[in-house]
């Protein structure tokens, strides 16, 4: 009698757990769900660079306050750092608009920035320069470009029309947890640069 009661109880218990988990899963909004091959399609990067990359899933609350899942292509040795940072982003509910590999924007950094997309790998030159960006190796990340634009010494701003207002949600500042945590892990913040203030940009090129 008792074991019958116990098995009934266990059945009920696990049914509830499963339905809660299923509900939680179904509430996630999927921003990106690509295979690795799809995420690198059409890139100009050489094979050794492609072989050094990994595509990871990340979860975050967007500006709609809902839980989203996106993907980011980064250099393999930075996977732990980036997972750790996104765990903190999720726990703190720091809003991230979306995280989608740049292939979805035909490798156009301008289109990705204008859409407020957070991303890393893109085999491209530094804007207005002739050298390869650290994004070419998946060792730099741009976060919420609309809240955290690049502001050049001649006051031009990328993306166009964006404004850096430290009090607006999703904005990165010197003393916010994101900057502190990235720096603890050895990353550099573009907001600390002198001639160009690249508030969206973090990079870690040395280990
Ligand atoms: Zn950048």
- In the sheet with the most strands, the strands line up as 1-3-2
What is the ordering of alpha helices and beta strands? HEHHEEHEHEEEEHEEE
Strand content: 15-25%
The set of bound ligands, ions and cofactors reads:
zinc ion
Number of helices in the DSSP assignment: 6
Separation of termini? Answer: 63 Å
Largest sheet data: 3 strands, mixed
Helical content (DSSP H or I, runs of 4+): 25-40%
Q: Assign the structural class, choosing from mainly alpha, mainly beta, alpha/beta, alpha+beta, or little secondary structure.
A: alpha+beta
Globally, the shape reads globular
Residue-averaged pLDDT? 92
- How many DSSP E strands? 11
Number of domains: 1
Poorly predicted sequence stretches spanning 5 or more consecutive residues: none
**What Rg, in angstroms, do the CA atoms define?**
20 Å
List the keywords.
207 residues, alpha+beta, 3-stranded mixed β-sheet, 3-stranded antiparallel β-sheet, 11 strands, binds zinc ion
Structure description:
By secondary structure, this protein is α+β, with helices and mostly antiparallel strands. It has one domain. It is built from six helices and eleven strands. The strands form four sheets. The chain has a three-stranded mixed sheet. Strands 6-11-9 form a three-stranded antiparallel sheet, with helices on one face. β7 and β8 form a beta hairpin. The longest helix is centred in the first third of the chain and has 25 residues. It is globular and about 75 Å long. The N and C termini lie far apart (63 Å). 34% of the residues are buried. The mean pLDDT is 92. The site of zinc ion has 5 residues, from β6.
């Amino acid at each position: 009698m008792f074991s019958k009661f116990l098995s009934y109880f266990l059945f009920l218990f696990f049914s509830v757990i499963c339905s809660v988990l299923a509900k939680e899963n179904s509430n996630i909004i999927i921003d990106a769900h690509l295979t690795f091959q799809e995420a690198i399609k059409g890139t100009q990067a050489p094979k050794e660079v492609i072989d050094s990359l990994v595509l990871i899933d990340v979860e975050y609350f967007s500006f709609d306050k809902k839980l989203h899942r996106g993907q980011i292509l980064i250099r393999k040795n930075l996977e732990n750092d980036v997972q750790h940072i996104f765990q903190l982003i999720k726990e703190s509910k720091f809003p991230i608009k979306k995280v989608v590999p740049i292939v979805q924007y035909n490798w156009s950094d301008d289109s990705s920035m204008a859409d407020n997309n957070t991303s890393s790998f893109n085999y491209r030159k530094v804007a207005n320069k002739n050298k390869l960006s650290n994004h070419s190796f998946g060792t730099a990340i741009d976060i919420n470009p609309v809240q955290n634009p690049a502001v050049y010494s001649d006051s031009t701003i990328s993306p166009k029309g964006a404004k850096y207002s430290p009090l607006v949600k999703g904005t990165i500042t010197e003393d916010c947890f994101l900057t502190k945590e990235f720096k603890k892990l050895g990353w550099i913040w573009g907001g600390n640069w002198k001639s160009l203030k690249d508030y969206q940009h973090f990079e870690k090129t040395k280990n």
